[in-house]
Amino acid sequence: MAHIPCIGAVVFDEQERLLLVKRANPPAQGKWSLPGGRLESGETSEDGVVREVREETGLDVKVVREVGTIQRDAPSGDTYVIRDFLCALTVSATPVADDDASDAGFFALTEVIELPTSEGLLEALRDWDLIPGSVR
Questions:
Q1: Hey, what CATH topology would domain 3-127 get?
Q2: Is the backbone peptide bond immediately before 95 cis, with ω within 30 degrees of 0?
Q3: Which residues pair with 32 in a beta bridge?
């Protein structure tokens, strides 16, 4: 069983809304998740997360810090090892879904808890103290 290196981006806008993409492909097809994906050969995690956010949403970000790592089962039987990074928008803009995202947007956390999200998303954000305010 192989470990597949992946990255994800936690991005909030100036109104503390979370950037999410709706997955167009497995895994988690049809669910809302953080923008991200597999690292490309020779790519750093930081470069990968900036690339994935741009590919999936058209937004440019800069990495602030790594916030945590999660593991998820891949359809192949391998394991995705996903390093998540808190990122900041370099320019305020509206996300536009592209690449393997069927939709993208910023959501208030009160909206996020009502969405069909990928497994463990809210729990990870809580564990990493990234949920602003009193949304629990």
A1: Nucleoside Triphosphate Pyrophosphohydrolase (3.90.79)
A2: no
A3: 22, 117
Contacts 24+ apart (CB under 8 A), 68-73: 68/124, 68/127, 68/128, 70/120, 70/124, 72/27, 72/119, 72/120, 73/27
Q: Domain ranges in the chain?
A: 3-127
Strands 3-11 and 79-89: parallel
Amino acid in position 125: L
Helix (H) or strand (E) holding 111: helix 109-112
* Sign of the CA dihedral running 18, 21, 26, 29: positive
Buried b (16+ CB within 10 A) or exposed e, 56-75: bbbbebebeeebbebeeebe
Per-residue confidence (pLDDT) for residue 1, from 0 to 100: 82
Q: Tell me the pLDDT tens digit for each residue of 24-50.
A: 887 788 999 999 999 999 999 999 999
Summarize the chain as % helix, strand, coil (round to 5): 20, 40, 45
pLDDT tens sequence across 55-105: 999 999 999 999 999 998 888 899 999 999 999 999 989 999 998 899 999
